Amino acid sequence: MAITKPVTDECAFIEENAGFIFGKLAVEVSRLASIKVERQTGGIIS
After folding, report:
1. Which superkingdom heads the taxonomic lineage of this protein's source (predicted)?
2. pLDDT, tens digit (0-9, with 9 covering 90-100), for 6-41
3. What is the DSSP letter of 22?
């Protein structure tokens, strides 16, 4: 038990951080994509 518990805690910690990082990444990608679309269309799409 002493060996498995820290491993599961660490995995949960990594999963939480991964969700946070991927969430920020998705927001950034969508933001950049919308900027790119605005440039292509001359700012028609808001």
Report:
1. Eukaryota
2. 667 888 888 888 888 899 999 999 999 988 888 877
3. H
How many angstroms separate the CA atoms of 36 and 16, rounded? 30
Instruction: Give residue 27's pLDDT.
Output: 93
Q: Which DSSP state fits 44?
A: -
12 in Cβ contact with 20 (< 8 Å)? no
Q: Residue 38: which of 4, 30, 19, 18 has the closest Cα?
A: 30
With bands split at pLDDT 50, 70 and 90, how would you rate the model's confidence at 5?
low
Give the ranges where 1-46 is alpha helix by DSSP (H): 4-41
